[in-house]
């Protein structure tokens, strides 16, 4: 998808600190971390948000979610706990229109968020 920051990261046109990659998903460190561990996990195929998940792309999202515990473990937060966040649209705080799941950890996180 043209002009999508995360598609450019997938294509290698924008550098990123990758922490996990396979055929269909990519995980990399957030450029502006909100916690000691802040990893972004995306499908390589462009899906704008959870609102666009359908029968065709659900397999990639299911695979992505199944890999989150492994990625969290590799980031060292599996035992202490962590949070997975998916922001959707304007009021949800989504700033990049390519579906992504935040893995946040390494400190006690507040609840509820603002
Ligand atoms: P959102 O607010 O859409 O849920 O999250 C987007 C996240 O992507 C933000 O936490 C932001 O810091 C991160 N981000 C935006 N641009 C880049 C980039 O070019 N590289 C990396 N690694 N992260 C980015
Ligand atoms: Zn994209």
UniProtKB/TrEMBL annotation:
Instruction: Tell me the Pfam families matching this sequence.
Output: HIT
| Matching PROSITE patterns | HIT_1, HIT_2
Q: Where is this motif: Histidine triad motif?
A: 98-102
Instruction: Name the gene.
Output: hinT
Query: Where's the HIT domain?
Result: 5-114
The active site lies at 100 (tele-amp-histidine intermediate)
Question: Origin organism of this chain?
Answer: Andreesenia angusta
What InterPro entries does its record include?
A: Histidine_triad_CS, Histidine_triad_HIT, HIT-like, HIT-like_sf
Enzyme Commission number(s) from the entry: 3.-.-.-
Its Gene Ontology molecular function terms? Answer: hydrolase activity
The protein's matches in PANTHER family, at most eight in alphabetical order, are given as: HISTIDINE TRIAD HIT PROTEIN
Name the keywords, alphabetized.
Answer: Hydrolase
Mind telling me what this protein is named? HIT-like protein HinT
């Amino acid at each position: 998808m043209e002009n999508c920051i995360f598609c450019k990261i997938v294509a290698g046109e924008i550098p990123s600190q990758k922490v996990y990659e396979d055929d269909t998903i990519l995980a990399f460190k957030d450029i502006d971390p909100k916690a000691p561990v802040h990893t972004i996990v995306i499908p390589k195929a462009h899906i704008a948000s959870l609102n666009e998940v359908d029968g065709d792309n659900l397999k990639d999202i299911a695979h992505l979610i199944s890999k989150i515990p492994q990625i969290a473990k590799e980031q060292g937060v599996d035992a202490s706990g962590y949070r997975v966040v998916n922001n959707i649209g304007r009021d949800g705080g989504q700033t990049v229109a390519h579906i992504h799941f935040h893995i946040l950890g390494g400190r006690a996180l507040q609840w509820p968020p603002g």
